[in-house]
Design a protein that fits this description.
Elements (H helix, E strand, L loop, with lengths): L1 H12 L8 E14 L4 E14 L4 E7 L4 E2 L2 H11 L7 E8 L9 E13 L2 E14 L2 E11 L18 E12 L4
Antiparallel strand pairs: 1-2, 1-9, 2-3, 2-4, 3-5, 5-6, 6-7, 7-8, 8-9
Length: about 180
C-alpha cells in the first residue's frame, strides 16, 4: 500500500492532473533472462507496481528485488545475497516519460520511446528504450524488452562464475493498467 501511495504521488506531482489521466497497475510483471556459456538464468515476478499519466506521458515502475522467483533456489539465493544485495537495495525503480507526443487517450497501438532514470542496486543510470502501449476502450497495456549491462549498476560478477552469469541481461516488463478513480 505504501508503494502505491508513493507511486500515485509521484505521477500526480509531475503535473496537475485529473483522475482520468492517471492509470495504475498493481501486479506489473517483470522477467529477466541471462544467457551465459554454462547456463541460462531466468526469473519472474508479478509484484511490481506502475503508473502512467496519459496526459503528460509520465511513467513509473517499481519492483521489489526479492520477489523474483527462479527455477533453482540456489540461483535465487545468489541473486539476492551476492549480486543484487536485496537487503541493502530492496527495490529497482524507474521514473521516466514517453518521448513522443502521443495521444494515449485514443484507441490504438503505439510504438513509443521512453526515457528516464533507472535506479538498480543503488545506482542511477539513464535509459532510452522502445516499448509498446495499447489503448482500447479505456484500458491500457504497456510492454517493453530492453538490455541492462550489469556493470553499469555496479553488480559485480566474480571471475570464477563469469561463464554462469552474462554481462548483459534482457529485461521484459508488462503492465495492464486501470484508471485511478477518486473516491
Amino acid at each position: 500500500m505504501k508503494n502505491l501511495f508513493l507511486l500515485f504521488s509521484l505521477v500526480i506531482i509531475t503535473s496537475a492532473v485529473s483522475a482520468q489521466d492517471v492509470f495504475s497497475c498493481k501486479n506489473t510483471r517483470f522477467s529477466f533472462f541471462s544467457s551465459a556459456p554454462l547456463e541460462d538464468i531466468e526469473a519472474k515476478t508479478d509484484k511490481g507496481v506502475s503508473a502512467i499519466n496519459v496526459k503528460t506521458g509520465a511513467i513509473y515502475f517499481k519492483v521489489p528485488i526479492a520477489s523474483f522467483q527462479f527455477r533453482k533456489k540456489l540461483m535465487q539465493d545468489h541473486f539476492n545475497q551476492n549480486y543484487l544485495e536485496s537487503d541493502k537495495f530492496p527495490f529497482a525503480e524507474f521514473k521516466g516519460k514517453v518521448v513522443e507526443n502521443t495521444d494515449l487517450s485514443r484507441n490504438g497501438t503505439y510504438e513509443v520511446t521512453v526515457e528516464g532514470m533507472l535506479n538498480l542496486h543503488g545506482v542511477d543510470k539513464a535509459y532510452r528504450e522502445k516499448g509498446t502501449i495499447t489503448v482500447k476502450d479505456g484500458n491500457i497495456t504497456a510492454g517493453s524488452t530492453f538490455n541492462i549491462r550489469v556493470a553499469d549498476h555496479r553488480i559485480d560478477v566474480p571471475s570464477m562464475v563469469v561463464k554462469n552469469v552474462a554481462e548483459v541481461v534482457a529485461v521484459t516488463v508488462n503492465a495492464v493498467y486501470t484508471a485511478v478513480v477518486n473516491r
